[in-house]
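User: Hello! I'm new to structural biology and keep hearing that structure can be predicted from sequence alone. Could you demonstrate with Organic solvent tolerance-like N-terminal domain-containing protein? Please show me the input and the output so I can see what each looks like.

Assistant: Of course. The first part below is the input, the amino acid sequence of Organic solvent tolerance-like N-terminal domain-containing protein. The second part is the output, the predicted structure written as tokens.
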Amino acid sequence: MNKLHLLLFTLFIGFVSITGAQEKKKIKIEYAGKLTIDDENYPGAKILTRDDAQQVHIEHGGANMWCDKAIHYSKDNFIEAYGNVKLKQGDTINMTSKYIEYSGITELAFASGDVVMTDPNSTITSDTLYMDRTRQQAFYRSGGTVVKDSSGTITSKIGRYYMDQKKYQFVEDVVLVSEESTINSDYFDFYSDTGYAYLFGPSTITTEESKTYCEKGFYDTENKVGYALKKARIDYDDRIIEGDSLYFDNNKSFASATNNIKITDTINKSIAKGHYAEVFREKDSLFITKRALATTVQENDSIYIHADKIMITGKPENRIINAYYNAKIFKSDLSGKADSIHSDEKTGVTKLLNIPRLSKGDKFSVIRKPILWNLGNQMTGDTIHLISNPESEKIDSLLVFENAFVISRDTISENGYNQINGKRLVGLFNDKNELNQVVVTKNAQSIFYARNDKQELIGIDKSKSGSISILFSEGDINEYTRFNQIDGNLFPESRFSEKEKLLKGFDWREDERPRNVDDLFKDDPALELPVIKGLEDYVPQEDFFDESLKERINASRRVYKFKAEKIENLILHENEFDHTTWTKNNLTVTKNIMTAPNGKTNAEQLVSINNKNGQFIQVINKATGNFKFSIWLKGKGNVIIGFQEAGKDFTVYKKANIELTNNWVEYDIESEKENDGSSFRCLITGIKPNTELYAWGARLINVSSSKPIKKLTDLPKKVLPQKKKAE
């Protein structure tokens, strides 16, 4: 075969291949009851209608469509289908509507009028729906509903279905309603085969028993379990749970929380804090550890309990707090320590206990011996009970069982201590929660530093008796009375040896005394919080009508009746804040510093300079309208976004205070501008010298000018002129 023959053969094969490929893409009419021509209204088209036997049947690339009437532009490889339209792709995708227009070149279908698309896992309904067979995606932007039998019904303004992944992406006003719960979210990713839902932006999950809020979360709609991140909060009937990460199981009414936890009892006005917690709603129990702190909020003086572990159980009217190991209690006029603290809010009894450990020889530990401090008095014993009045929230009395010991430092002597010990102690408090009277019974011993009215030391009183009653005034011993005294005398200080100045069992522990709430934690080991890993940041949905789809549409010889263009962004250079269209005051811009929310381009950092608050502004030459301004922000600190008059008195139309986070968040505000004769400006201000700020994707749209998609009857029919062949 010579070169000429080879060239001709190659060209022939190539022509056949191209022709074959085009033929494969041609729309085929499998059946039509009637065919007519109407060049005046439909130039170059065949009008196909059904008969009594069956509908018009159309096939293209494995997809089949049936309708009552079709207009087929064979040269353009384009068809319009009317009346009871059904489209079927393989064994999985079925769509019905009143109208479909479809191009065999772009493989893009536009359906309108009671659109219903089903696959084995879910059903989409919408007034209009786009279906891209090339990318295997469906899209609506004017409101739609998705139904999944076991998961419920999802509605949103914008929705996109990735058929290969069985994945939905919902945007704006997203609501999922099922028998068990209702979910509201701004951005919602849903997998129809598993029922997994991923929530981004302000989101809530509401059930009969609870309401969960987060700005990033996951929920298994099949198994009713999930977890919440970023400003996470769960509201039960009488408890509010907050933390960096919350796991919840709505089947068991169970929740666990990790890092920076706060659990509020709204009925009993108590708060529990820590860094790991478990809540069983139906059992009315709460377990919290890692710097656990339980606070009972009182009108005049709150009570704080800290321990390695805290358990709160019981119905609201009968709550019990158990604090285990290295337990401490604090209020402004009283504090204490014990191995364990048990507090019954109904009876008002708080017990300081020394629990025997399982280890050999550890039935009792002096280190863990319960201790209380009130004003200048230290009280110890094997067990201590504080008895409060639940109604008045004041301490009434104190009981110390076994080895009761009271110590107070003498007001003048450097190393002098007033001391009383015995088997049991009963203490009474006055209305100021001050220890007013103490009675020590059984084998009572005492040492008192006796002073005259001039506070001069008379001597040291040491005695033994059956019991002793002491009256206090402002923390000092004012009067004491002995009963059944065995021996005792008043001795000059010079005749007292150092050993005799201390009763057996003396243990002055003032250095352990908590003076404030922070002191409750001073003995705790260093705490390193776990790094919470989980959901990735939200990636904004790319435009359905991206460049590749637009190229396919432009390659088609037909004009679709729908509008593919995006709403105009009135902001210029939305990602280039160093551009001159943006006015920058006390601000510098660093480019390519951070990956943008779309995961592809880079964002910019804006840094305040000259030790002043910075701002960046763009003036919009519009006089009136209803405008929506949005921008993606990330960082640390606070800023303000707003609309403002561009001139005159710089009237503020709308503003919002923003608390920046470590995640990209799209913030937006909307405001109506009346025709006041001035333009207006969008601004981000209040950028302080210590603010860390990254920005991307500024966007301003005129909401009042956004038009809904027209009805089919309002849309004109257009035909593109044929392209001229090259000479």
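User: So the tokens describe the shape?

Assistant: Right, they're a compact way of writing down the 3D structure. Reading them back into a model, for example: The helical segments are 3-25, 547-555.
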